[in-house]
Design brief:
Helix content: 25-40%
Strand order of the largest sheet: 6-4-3-7-8-12-11
Order of helices and strands: HEEHHHEHEEEHEHEEEHEEH
Largest sheet: 7 strands, mixed
Distance between the termini: 26 Å
Length: 320
């Protein structure tokens, strides 16, 4: 069962000696310790693929309409990860893709629709995704594969690593679980490989055991081993804007692995910021709960009654 209280002896490490505030919002996604098993049949996955196709058509239209500008400020936030996958589709073509954290296979299906050669999904809990190009593994299996030299070309992690180390999904309680997960992801992909990652951005915060929010203190630690190539949907004001922690702001971080497993750390390079005011942020389309969003040229894809491009992990305590 997910731990209801943060271990007192670890509080100083979780808060970095009090630098990061602590809030509480308890969620147990372990089914009281029994574990979960999410299953998608081939017909259900085919339905997801159809919905993703419609949504990608709308995103393509949005990119065309934006011409040289960024379409991200005009798209529902639910669509930002899928829009980033479309923008960097050349890196997905023919690629071996690994997905970290999944409860529904929208990212896997999007990668396949953008011509990835195969997709491997890593989860703490059990998954069955019935498709010949999608394989699912548990964390211990990933460790064995990496140690034997297996690597992928592209990694995807949408709203996943901010949970690592909080025990919510049955993962080990670890103050640095998120940073260790990011390090593991780097060892999984080839030198020059790309990772698309989203985590909640804003003033630093640990919400036990819901998630973390990353600001000026922890975000640099999270990205220390990576070159930051771009930040899609990035609004500089949000780093200091103390919003409701259940209404997350999650731009897409485009990261590149510039070192081998044996290399030392490479200082991250900051991508240019696009500054907007907090008032402008409030006017951005937020998307919807029941479909892919009515933006992106009017394309909306209701996939099995769930938001296909919202969050890889269902955030029971989060607001859209």
């Amino acid at each position: 069962q997910a731990p209801r209280e943060m271990p007192q002896e670890l509080e100083e490490e979780f808060t970095l000696g009090g630098l990061i505030p602590l809030e509480h919002f308890y969620v147990d996604d372990t089914l009281r310790g029994r574990g979960t098993h999410y299953t998608y049949s081939r017909s259900q996955i085919d339905s997801v693929l159809t919905g993703i196709t419609r949504s990608l058509a709308g995103i393509k239209e949005a990119f065309s309409a934006a011409e040289r500008g960024s379409p991200f400020p005009h798209l529902p936030r639910d669509l930002w990860p899928l829009a980033a996958m479309w923008k960097y589709r050349d890196r997905l073509q023919g690629a071996r893709v690994i997905v970290f954290g999944s409860m529904e296979p929208w990212a896997e299906c999007a990668a396949l629709q953008l011509n990835a050669s195969s997709v491997t999904t890593v989860e703490y809990n059990e998954l069955t995704y019935d498709h010949p190009s999608i394989s699912t593994i548990r964390v211990h299996a990933l460790e064995s594969m990496v140690r034997s030299g297996h690597q992928w070309d592209v990694a995807l992690s949408f709203s996943s690593f901010d949970h690592d180390g909080l025990g919510r999904y049955g993962d080990p309680v670890d103050p640095d679980g998120d940073i260790k997960a990011m390090s593991w992801m780097r060892t999984c992909i080839t030198v020059g490989g790309t990772a698309l990652v989203t985590v909640p951005i804003g003033p630093d915060l640990v919400v036990w055991n819901l998630h973390r929010r990353y600001g000026s203190v922890r975000l640099p630690r999270l990205l220390a081993e990576w070159e930051v190539e771009e930040k899609e949907g990035w609004f500089e004001d949000m780093l200091g804007r103390n919003t409701n922690f259940r209404r997350t702001y999650e731009p897409v971080l485009v990261l590149r692995n510039t070192k081998s497993r044996e290399d030392g750390q490479v200082p991250p390079q900051s991508a240019p910021f696009v500054a907007v005011t907090a008032e402008e942020w409030d006017q951005l389309p937020a998307g919807t709960d029941s479909n892919m969003g009515a933006g992106a040229g009017g394309a909306a894809a209701n996939i099995g009654g769930t938001t296909a491009a919202s969050r890889s992990k269902t955030k029971a305590g989060d607001e859209a």
